[in-house]
Amino acid sequence: MQASSDQLQPIESHSRRQRLLETAIRGWLSLALRTTRWRFEATPEARALLLQERTSGSQSSGLLVAFWHEALALSPALWWWTEPRNPAMRLHVLISRNRDGRLIANIVAPWRIPPIHGSSDKKGKNKGGAAALRQIRTALAEGHTVAVMPDGPKGPRREVQAGIIALAEKTGIPIIPVGVQCRCIRVRSWDRMILPLPFGRGRIVCGTPLHIEKGDARETARVLLGERLTAAQDEAGRVAASYPDSLATMPSAAVAEGPMKAPHTPARPFRASAPLLWNLCASLLAPALIVMLRIRLRRGKEIAERLRERLGLDKSQRPPGPLIWLHAASVGETISILPVIRVLLNDEPSLHILVTTGTVTAAGILARELPDEIKAGQVLHRFVPLDVPRWVKRFLRHWQPTCLVLTESELWPNMIAACNAADVPVTVVNGRLSRSALNGWRRVPRMAKAMMSGLSWVAARSPEDAARFRMLGAANVFCDGDLKTAAAPLTADPDVLDDARKAIGTRPVWIAASTHSGEEARVLEAAKIVAATHPDLLTIIAPRHPERGKMVADEVLSAFPSVGTVPRRAQAAWPKAQDPVWVVDTLGELGTLFRLSPVIFMGNSLVVSGGPTPGGGHNPFEPARLGCVVATGPATGNFEEAFVALADAVTVVHTPQELAKWVETMLDNTALATSRGEAGRKVATRDQMLPLRLARLIHRTMSNA
């Protein structure tokens, strides 16, 4: 039976109105998005995943892209940028089955963005989640990209739901957090939906991808993804004109082309003063700090004849002309700024750079890596004064630096306040703020805001770090990459390397580098397991703190009772054929060790039952730059972005048994170890232009001081 014309007319009329509405919205979005001048920024790994940059012979895999529901209308801009550069990309978007979802699906359909429906229908019925999950897994298995809004379709706003976490865990597919913003108006909806306006400027920011392994805590992954999504969205919302000139005119490899007006030079920061309570406490604690320094001296962590430097006392003469004060806390920070120092001196040989560190080890690294510059007086080293007001002021009066450059998370209220009072601009390179550090500073918000307001600019290493600096009150923050991906490979003494190779011969070797108390026992347990199948195995242990060499040697004797003595590098002993373990308890020789074996375990990461809590890992880029394949324990919070970027070049182990199995696999399958090591090397050496960009920015800051 056919329907009558009067029954069909309302249906046709409704359908016509629906098509007109879809056409109008599609036309407006197309006009607004295509006339916006977009700036695309991505971490190196996110960019490689979007453009399917793979090593030779590897296969493309699926990809999950996540953005907050509020940015749904802006998301086509990402595909329009990506598709010409990666024609093989096929995009699907997970959209609600309700009326609004179907409207959006029809709007974007002509743009080659097929929907996957499955969230909800009227009154929450017929969700179709199982069918949607099957479609998504099929699309991912075929190498397609699936876009998901983790807080949709009904919210709560900016709160990740569990579905995407479970999907990523089951498929092993990484999630790229994306933030999109442009000139717009916001709808008064639950998500504050962004509607773009034409002829404006916009930014697309792709943050560090999140890899979720089976067995990972889902709640932790959910919180982390939420943080990264919010950081990317907030970063995208930053006004491009707030970027310093030198970065605007020299985009990084992770910043795509796009017209951009050169911004003005950043204004001087607010003149911050340290909170009275902190100032008073530091002054009252000065006698106790002197006692603490003497205790450190007895433990070999200070140098007797240079202890006065920690009080700001110095009898040396300041060199004439401009002087940059560059502070690096310890070894990692010192190594990361070496390329910046070299660029600064290459651009202006008459410049003098004062480097302060907080550890003897870092001072040794500086002396070893820049001997000619130190001998010529271009680079000077001093131990940083503790953050007592009169000690810091005494230091500033003597050295009168032109500007201060802090690295990573070395933020001291009195130091920053004293520099502000002396009109010395303070900047931060490779800025890093962990979640725990953010929470700590939030307990003293007035102190944090006062300190952050005294910074001229902050070059954060990731969008997440940039967002955390802004949360504490820093104004001029931008993200330009991690200096640890731009450092040169660690150096090696050729004579020492040659002698070590002669002593080792053709024995299979693996290295446990930068280990901490409690880890050596687990490393030795793994070594005994591997030795069952590799009787001539040599395990090299390099403790992070060389003064622990004797303690480590004693542990070796406990694990291998038949061994009479344990060769220690500090005693100039080389391993003999019968020695199962060699303890390298000296400074600055990791570059040599990483050339002796490509199989490296990075310490300070393995959780030891009943032992001290690991400190968050050590820099995996150091071995990766030399083509080594890396294993780590699960505690990697200090270098989370680095471990994520290295992806398959790093293996996480939880027990001595897992560590032993990994070592055996890498020793037996040299082709696999080589391919993973090469993949890691490419990641760890990707952004070689970052030191140049930061050095030019420091020069500009210094000239404006």
Q: Overall pLDDT, averaged?
A: 83
Please give the CATH architecture of the largest domain. Answer: 3-Layer(aba) Sandwich
Q: Which stretches are poorly predicted, pLDDT < 50 over at least 5 residues?
A: 1-5, 54-59, 120-126, 240-268
Helix content: 40-55%
CATH topology grouping of the largest domain: Rossmann fold
Annotation field: number of helices: 27
Number of domains in the coordinates? 3
Strand content: 5-15%
Class derived from helix and strand content:
alpha/beta
Characterization of the model:
The protein folds into three domains: 31-237, no CATH class; 280-486 and 689-704, 3-Deoxy-D-manno-octulosonic-acid transferase, N-terminal domain (Rossmann fold, 3-Layer(aba) Sandwich), CATH 3.40.50; 494-684, Glycogen Phosphorylase B (Rossmann fold, 3-Layer(aba) Sandwich), CATH 3.40.50. The chain has 27 helices and 22 strands. Helix 11 (331-347) packs parallel to helix 12 (360-369), helix 20 (519-531) runs parallel beside helix 21 and helix 20 packs across helix 25 (656-668). Helices cover 42% and strands 15% of the residues. It is of the alpha/beta class and 705 residues long. This is 3-deoxy-D-manno-octulosonic acid transferase. Residues 87-157 form the DUF374 domain. Keywords: Transferase.
Layout of helices and strands, plus pairs?
Elements: H1 5-35, E1 37-42, H2 44-50, E2 63-66, H3 76-85, E3 91-95, H4 99-108, E4 115-117, H5 129-141, E5 145-148, H6 162-171, E6 175-182, E7 184-186, E8 194-196, E9 201-206, H7 218-236, H8 245-249, H9 276-284, H10 286-298, E10 323-327, H11 331-347, E11 352-357, H12 360-369, H13 371-375, E12 379-383, H14 389-399, E13 403-407, H15 413-421, E14 426-431, H16 435-442, H17 445-452, E15 457-460, H18 463-471, E16 477-479, H19 494-504, E17 509-515, H20 519-531, E18 538-543, H21 549-559, E19 581-583, H22 590-593, E20 599-602, H23 621-624, E21 629-632, H24 640-646, E22 650-652, H25 656-668, H26 670-684, H27 690-704
Parallel strand pairs: 1-9, 2-5, 2-6, 3-4, 3-5, 10-11, 10-13, 11-12, 13-14, 14-15, 15-16, 17-18, 17-20, 18-19, 20-21, 21-22
Antiparallel strand pairs: 6-9, 7-8
